[in-house]
Amino acid sequence: MATCNEPHHAHHDHQHGPHCGHTAIRHGDHVDYLHDGHLHHPHGDHVDEHRLEVNTTNPDRCTPDHQCGGHEPGHVHGPSCGHPAVPHGDHVDYLVNGHLHHPHGNHCDDHGPVSIVQ
To answer: Where is the stretch described as Disordered (predicted)?
Structure first.
């Protein structure tokens, strides 16, 4: 196997795959798994740490008029809010109803859809 230049998740014994219990999302040409605020990609004998790129599908922009319906208006995203954390660019978003929410002041920005693998 060629040398892997991706950041690795050290000491990761869990085997990700279909039905492992973690949300699987399409990321480019492969599938990653959301696990405790990390985006994991099984790769040979280790697990790579991935981040969703900021791009036209998943932009990093302010959308103060976003109306999601995936949670109450006063909901505050954070480590124990009930929504999986997703590394995106240089920040963390939260997966809500198939799209990325980014807490921003008194609203949530819509950072675009993700493709959940069933």
So the answer is: 1-23
Residue 86 lies in domain: 20-118
Instruction: Give the number of domains in the chain.
Output: 1
Hey, how many other C-beta atoms are within 10 angstroms of the C-beta on 19? 6
Write the DSSP assignment of 45-105 as a string of letters: TEEEEE-BPPSSSS-----TT----SS-TT---STTSSS-EEEETTEEEEEETTEEEEEET
Model pLDDT, residue 10:
55
Whether 108 is covered by a domain: the verdict is: yes
- Please tell me the distance from the alpha carbon of residue 101 to that of residue 79, in angstroms, as a whole number: 13
DSSP one-letter string for 72-89: -TT---STTSSS-EEEET
Domain presence at residue 9: no
What tens digit of pLDDT does each residue of 32-45 get? Answer: 989 888 888 877 77
pTM for the structure as a whole: 0.82
Q: Please check whether residue 33 is in contact with residue 20, taking contact to mean a CB–CB distance below 8 angstroms.
A: yes
Q: What is the pLDDT of residues 17-31, one digit of tens each?
A: 677 777 899 999 989
